[in-house]
Here is the input.
Amino acid sequence: MSPAGARGRLDVNIKQKSFRAASGGKLHVLGELVFSLRSGELAALVGPSGCGKTTLLRIVAGLDRDFDGHVAIPAHGTLAMVFQEPRLLPWRTVEQNVRLAAPRASDAGLEMLFQTLGLEAHRDHYPGELSLGLARRVALARAFAVKPDLLLLDEPFVSLDDALAARLREELAELVNRRPVTTLLVTHNVEEAIGLADRLLLLSIGPARIVADVAVARPRAAHTPAELAALRHEIARRLNQPFSRENL
Amino acid sequence: MSPAGARGRLDVNIKQKSFRAASGGKLHVLGELVFSLRSGELAALVGPSGCGKTTLLRIVAGLDRDFDGHVAIPAHGTLAMVFQEPRLLPWRTVEQNVRLAAPRASDAGLEMLFQTLGLEAHRDHYPGELSLGLARRVALARAFAVKPDLLLLDEPFVSLDDALAARLREELAELVNRRPVTTLLVTHNVEEAIGLADRLLLLSIGPARIVADVAVARPRAAHTPAELAALRHEIARRLNQPFSRENL
Amino acid sequence: SATAEDRIRLAVQRTGTLAWELDVIRTHGLDRKFDLAIETVELASTEAGKIALKGGSADLMLSDWLWVARERSLGDNLVFYPSSSTLGAVMVPAHSSIREIVGLRGKKLAVAGGPLDKSWLLLQALARQSGLDLKKQTTVVYGAPPLLSEKALQGEIDATLTFWNFCADLESKGYRRAIAMDDVVKGLGARGPVALVGYTFDGTWAVRNRSTVERFLAAARQAKDILASSQPEWQRLAPRIRISDATALAIYRQRYGEGIVRRPFADEEADARALYLVLAEIGGAELVGPARELPAGTFYRPAAAE
Amino acid sequence: MGMRLVSLALLIAAWYVGSQLAGARLLPDPQAVALAIVDEARSGALAFNLGATLARVAVAFVIAMALGSLIGLIMGRSRIADRLGDPWLIVLLNLPALVIIVLAYVWAGLTETAAIAAVALNKLPIATVTVREGARSLDHALDDMAQVFRMGAWTRLRHVVLPQLAPYLAAAARSGLSLVWKIVLIVELLGRPNGVGFEIGVAFQLFDVTRILAYALAFIAVMLAIETFLVQPLERHVARWRPRPA
Amino acid sequence: MGMRLVSLALLIAAWYVGSQLAGARLLPDPQAVALAIVDEARSGALAFNLGATLARVAVAFVIAMALGSLIGLIMGRSRIADRLGDPWLIVLLNLPALVIIVLAYVWAGLTETAAIAAVALNKLPIATVTVREGARSLDHALDDMAQVFRMGAWTRLRHVVLPQLAPYLAAAARSGLSLVWKIVLIVELLGRPNGVGFEIGVAFQLFDVTRILAYALAFIAVMLAIETFLVQPLERHVARWRPRPA
Ligand SMILES: Nc1ncnc2c1ncn2[C@@H]1O[C@H](COP(=O)(O)OP(=O)(O)OP(=O)(O)O)[C@@H](O)[C@H]1O
Ligand SMILES: Nc1ncnc2c1ncn2[C@@H]1O[C@H](COP(=O)(O)OP(=O)(O)OP(=O)(O)O)[C@@H](O)[C@H]1O
Ligand SMILES: [Mg+2]
Ligand SMILES: [Mg+2]
Here is the structure.
């Protein structure tokens, strides 16, 4: 519990979270969910569609305070999030969107970022003039430009072609390596999770619990095909085991 | 050119399409794009992010008439589309959303569809109460419920966990097998494309042209790993060749 | 039952004198006596009557000859028959030092009805004779009469030129008539009390319905006489006038009685002619329209007068 | 509901304090006005006049809202209609109520039709302007969706367009109702033999503030009731899909 | 621009035909009104009165829009504020203009301040109601985004909230300006010694429709100019990000 470690530390201790639907029913979405991330740790959240990953991210981000439990995010740290949809301000250009979220970003830094993400040509475009993939990249640029201490990523690399996605994953790995960024990454792509994460948190459906907390040995470095296959197998076993209805 | 064939036939003959941006510039998005689909044929459109796939789909759907060229869609046929984002009516429930688009769908048919897509529990929910994955499934349900003659799918299976995506791919294959549905499927997932399509149309970037039109031998059936590897290689080669800037 | 000729439609302001007279006509069966079917369009404001008459929704209303003259000069065949010479006054608080027109110099003067109000114009004309330019040498405030009465009571205003019924109200609350318009009119050369207000109707219509008009004027005259002579009538009318205060009611009665036209028709017309010149000079074309003098035929001539 | 009552109580308390400070002649206190309302109610005059006014308000409101919304929708969606209609709209919008009322009465006589037409014409451009803004900001994405699925005109209007226009319609309706009522007052003042406006006009001639307030408040009470028991439940129903605010 | 001129020409043609049908006394033709405008302009009365009215309109409008939007924003975003403020809002909304004007004059004297306060108070609830609807339909998703990125209050207001409120503000401003002007007329009629309303009141006493129209149209011309050269270019600029309609 060094000061530096505590500074970037994320403690999640959710007792339960439920939604009340407009039609009247009550939906118990998250069950007991307890985990911590060390400063700079990258955890991948993997779980079936609709299990509560976004809900968890929103709680961590402080957007939803209507739950039982407690979440401690890095004190005084900056926060960045890539939402599941781009969430850009339609009436501001690409560049303005990024600058408004990251007013302290340097011109050179932005230049680099736009270059990496293939957005140079679109700086002055409005979000309505972008393809979805481009818009998602702007959302990534916005999150990266902030230089966050806590980074929440909700399926950041979907809707991108493989080559581009690979490049952006590298970019993320680099960002996280350069300085400690505590990161929660939601993904349906197990390969992606293994490639990027220090830990995999596997979630069950209804209400979501952590069914497995798998450490990935050599984080963010290449795995041998054999290691990979072993991990995949392990994950599939754990994910399939605890619930019967949704078969993964 | 039998009447039955002509009925479901799709002829695309685009000379060029460009956008005028609010900031003033003109963006030449589509170059010469000529192809036809036989009735019941399923073509996958694969191309880099931002290359113009959605633009092409919108033109085919008749949503954008501001282009040079001509598109003939199945006459008198019904049309269904899965947009790149769910595009549900936020003020109507899941079931109403589907029924409004497919007023002739039978109760039993809908029942089945909701079951397959894991939406039974969400029939009375409003879109704002759904996870993105759930919302995407509703958009799929809506398109399937229409029983279309021409089906346009813009990355329909992203944001879903692998197991679910696999199940839905099967569902699509079945739908298309049951009766002839001329289908254009946009995807970044080459595996998916090979698994589902009769033909792969590989698009280049800026302005988009068809760089390769690859026939997939045994459509919608299992391929041997060797065949698959050969195909993937072929596709990668073709996609990488013609453009230098974006390296895929 | 009345025939078509006997029908006459009146635009009546609910709180106005015509409404009182009409009440008396009905109560005393004067309408039946003169074989009239009187229909009324009750209205809440003076201007509404003009709309009614112009739009053809009423045959007859109460107005002043100044407006009738203006309309005639602009081509509308309206005619006027004098009804009342009751005029307003400049009202001041009981202890005020203002006793005559020159006393207004440097004071704050409220004027009901705006810059083209006839009393206001006449007052200005008379003031000029004493070398006083009221527009320049007093602080003039225009406003709706009820509002000005209230302002006067609040003490925001030194003197208030307002309509006679508002004068009566103020008088009952201890205000004094500093300058009566009757005197102003005389000061400007009129030989007697001038009936500025009268029955106004369409000349063409009057020609076609001569007998009806005259029977109505006769009925109205009888009603006026009843009102002038009968205290109980006023008691009965009090709720309609919406006055409960006995002092005020007495003042109302007195002023009303004084205003009944008793002069020969020709005298009225001659005085009107004289005053018209005064008004035309001070109000200009904006007020009177293109005519330089009182247009011929402004005053309706009943058969009896010919 | 509880909060609403608290708020109303505060309002009446504020009024009471105000009347104590200003003096009863300038601002009668709540009791005096309540008594005047009771008086008018007993004599039947209140119900009669309020009924007359409400009928006019209702008819003029419905006509103006329906026509105004329709025109606004068309102008918001079609550029040509907007360009052509805009100057007319601005002229009508800025034509003084008095002018419209006088012209209507002069042409159509002092009739009920003229009165209602005049009110509707005064309100119409305001509804149009508001709904036009709504139509301009309609979501093209949903439009496209409706077109792809070949939804019929009625379905589109009802399920795609109207829900998006709902807040604009609500704004137009609420401000419009109050506007219609304000103009009905003038219309009644200028040419109707009954109604709240007529009574207020008469009371004003006599500077009877108590009666003015009595009639004004009687109408406001009706509006408050409509708002509380009709409009707000309806609004909650229409907006039930919306994530609730804090 | 061309379309606008065509539309205006059509309007004047319609007016001309109308005046021929109705007769010049009831609806003076365009030339007569134009002549009256020129006359008034020559004497300097037009500029003087128009200036006085425009000044009142401008001040009252700015006050009412600023305060009304602020209150509307707060009520739209906070449930408690909405519950507490709503009855007051409805009362103010439905209080007849006459009542507010008379009370303002009675309390604050026949002064400019009273006049402007009365107008602003009449317009305020309408701006509030419109902006409240806008605030109610603000996008929570963007709010969340702004919160996550710790955007400051000013940034949020300017870049997140105001662009969403833009159509509501436009509707409130446009309908509000016309309303302010309508009420300024009554205020001037009842207790100001100058201004377009005062002149119209005088002309109305004489039933001088030509002069009424002359003053009304002079004001409308100013509004048309503001709309064409100021508001619409601004609107186009603000909405440049929107996909253009057909
Ligand atoms: N309305 C518009 N105005 C201007 N440019 C546009 C507009 N719509 C799309 N574009 C541009 O056209 C290009 C193609 O867009 P499109 O949405 O078709 O791409 P896409 O292939 O679907 O990409 P993705 O895989 O990211 O969805 C992009 O560069 C985009 O910025
Ligand atoms: N505001 C809400 N009101 C009611 N129910 C909600 C609300 N938001 C989410 N839910 C429900 O909570 C569950 C979890 O939603 P969440 O968005 O967290 O899922 P997810 O794991 O992110 O799914 P996906 O992978 O599809 O994005 C879903 O069943 C969803 O329907
Ligand atoms: Mg999610
Ligand atoms: Mg796309």
In short: Helices of chain A lie at 3-7, 53-61, 94-101, 107-116, 132-145, 162-178, 190-196, 225-240.
